[in-house]
């Protein structure tokens, strides 16, 4: 259609077709200008900055050389190796978005997503430790902390101390605002009493962001976020024994009149609900990246085996049935990747991303479980053993449909956006 503008056929009134076309184009909402790849302002979702590419290579090397040799041992012992945690700090991976003034790398949100993805390719347990610390704990201090709070806590979180996000309770999972933990004023301090469950990083953590209600009569508007430490009285009550991500600590916390100074309130009294909602939307992109990396890790371990294992005179991966399964898995992984990085870029650009984050987490968690399960079958009996590590990816994948918002919560979020748009 646009080629018609190049012809010079006479039109009524003496105007040529080319002139008519030029006048018509002036009234259009789009441009017919051909833009080369080098000129485009809209790069593909596979386009990353030099800094982001270097980070990916650095994290990949750390994961393969430092984390990989310890994965099975950590999984069997259900304990995170302290040297791994130390290495994360030394590599600058515990303060990715934190400003250089506070000891951080001052990188992009997408950089954090890249790090989470690359770590998950080798061990999702290490990945989630890095994820929660960066996308939840550090971000809360950066977005809602006062300058004094940032100066006190961010350097510690970037250099040596693991952080933990303490929201869930026995009676408040998906209904997070039904929490029963209370905080009451005592002079210039707050006394926090209650319990928390399913708290990631809690065994390694030294800094805890605890959500408690200071005025139950106000409902969720009484929820407030506090910074606490073990020295203030936070106690690890029980470490859960889990199906997957076993090296990642998941514990119950006991809070018995934990004394927290008033200066440790984050974001203001009664604003904890707002912090929790907003931060979990960002955190879901991190979980999507973890599940994406997990799926890729399982795929990368199983597929080469299918081209080495010969049955009936040819590699099993060459049979049409299996080759189509592998192709479909690759398609699913790429789809999850695009959803994840689209959500990350939208967040960076300051655009709405809540629906996109929900879509990314939901899709990536489904893909992780499907691909890791298929990977076991592709490797046959070998895949079912612990020796290859393939089965661990499948065990680790199940949590993706549960934490930081179940799959049904993600579907509900997506449905609300659709209803708002079309009803």
TrEMBL record:
One of its GO terms (molecular function) is short-chain 2-methyl fatty acyl-CoA dehydrogenase activity. Pfam families: Acyl-CoA_dh_1, Acyl-CoA_dh_M, Acyl-CoA_dh_N. The keyword Mitochondrion applies. Residues 49-159 form the Acyl-CoA dehydrogenase/oxidase N-terminal domain. Its cofactor is FAD. It is found in: Mitochondrion matrix. Its main location: mitochondrion. Residues 164-258 form the Acyl-CoA oxidase/dehydrogenase middle domain. It comes from the Eukaryota. Keywords: Acetylation, FAD, Fatty acid metabolism, Flavoprotein, Lipid metabolism, Mitochondrion, Oxidoreductase, Phosphoprotein, Transit peptide. It catalyses: 2-methylpropanoyl-CoA + oxidized [electron-transfer flavoprotein] + H(+) = 2-methylpropenoyl-CoA + reduced [electron-transfer flavoprotein]; (2R)-2-methylbutanoyl-CoA + oxidized [electron-transfer flavoprotein] + H(+) = ethylacryloyl-CoA + reduced [electron-transfer flavoprotein]; 2-methylbutanoyl-CoA + oxidized [electron-transfer flavoprotein] + H(+) = (2E)-2-methylbut-2-enoyl-CoA + reduced [electron-transfer flavoprotein]; hexanoyl-CoA + oxidized [electron-transfer flavoprotein] + H(+) = (2E)-hexenoyl-CoA + reduced [electron-transfer flavoprotein]. Pathway: Lipid metabolism; mitochondrial fatty acid beta-oxidation; Amino-acid degradation; L-isoleucine degradation. One of its GO terms (biological process) is carboxylic acid catabolic process. Residues 272-418 form the Acyl-CoA dehydrogenase/oxidase C-terminal domain. GO terms for cellular component: mitochondrial matrix. It is an enzyme of class 1 (oxidoreductase). Its EC number is 1.3.8.5. Belongs to the acyl-CoA dehydrogenase family. Homotetramer. This is Short/branched chain specific acyl-CoA dehydrogenase, mitochondrial. It comes from Rickenella mellea.
């Amino acid at each position: 259609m646009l080629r018609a503008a190049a012809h010079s056929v006479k039109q009524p009134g003496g105007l040529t077709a080319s002139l008519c076309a030029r006048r018509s184009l002036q009234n259009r909402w789009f441009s017919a200008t051909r833009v080369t790849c080098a000129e485009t302002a809209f790069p593909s979702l596979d386009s990353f900055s030099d800094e982001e590419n270097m980070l990916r290579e650095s994290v990949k090397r750390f994961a393969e050389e430092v984390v990989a040799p310890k994965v099975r041992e950590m999984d069997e012992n259900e304990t995170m190796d302290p040297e791994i945690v130390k290495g994360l700090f030394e590599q600058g991976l515990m303060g990715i978005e934190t400003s250089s003034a506070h000891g951080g790398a001052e990188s992009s949100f997408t950089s954090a997503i890249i790090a989470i993805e690359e770590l998950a390719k080798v061990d999702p347990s290490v990945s989630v430790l890095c994820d929660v610390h960066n996308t939840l704990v550090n971000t809360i201090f950066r977005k809602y902390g006062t300058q004094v709070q940032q100066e006190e806590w961010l350097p510690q979180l970037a250099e040596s101390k693991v952080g933990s996000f303490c929201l869930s309770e026995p009676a408040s999972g998906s209904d997070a605002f039904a929490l029963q933990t209370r905080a009451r004023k005592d002079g210039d301090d707050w006394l926090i009493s209650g319990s928390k469950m399913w708290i990631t990083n809690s065994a390694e953590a030294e800094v805890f962001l605890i959500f408690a209600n200071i005025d139950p009569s106000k409902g969720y508007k009484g929820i407030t976020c506090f910074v606490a430490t073990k020295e203030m009285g936070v106690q690890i009550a029980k470490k859960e024994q889990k199906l997957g991500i076993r090296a990642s600590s998941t514990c119950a916390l006991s809070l018995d009149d934990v004394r927290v100074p008033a200066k440790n309130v984050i974001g203001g009294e009664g604003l904890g609900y707002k912090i929790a909602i907003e931060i979990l939307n960002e955190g879901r992109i991190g979980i999507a990246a973890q599940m994406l990396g997990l799926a890729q890790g399982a795929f990368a371990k199983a597929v080469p085996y299918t081209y080495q294992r010969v049955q009936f005179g040819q590699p099993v991966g060459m049979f049409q049935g299996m080759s189509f399964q592998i192709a479909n898995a690759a398609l699913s992984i790429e789809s999850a990747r695009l959803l994840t990085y689209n959500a990350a870029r939208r967040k960076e650009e300051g655009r709405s991303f809540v629906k996109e984050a929900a879509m990314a987490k939901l899709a990536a968690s489904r893909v992780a479980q499907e691909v890791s399960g298929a990977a076991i079958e592709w490797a046959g009996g070998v895949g079912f053993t612990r020796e290859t590590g393939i089965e661990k990816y499948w065990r680790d994948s199940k949590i993706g449909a549960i934490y930081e918002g179940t799959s049904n919560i993600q579907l509900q979020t997506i449905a609300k956006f659709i209803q708002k748009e079309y009803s």
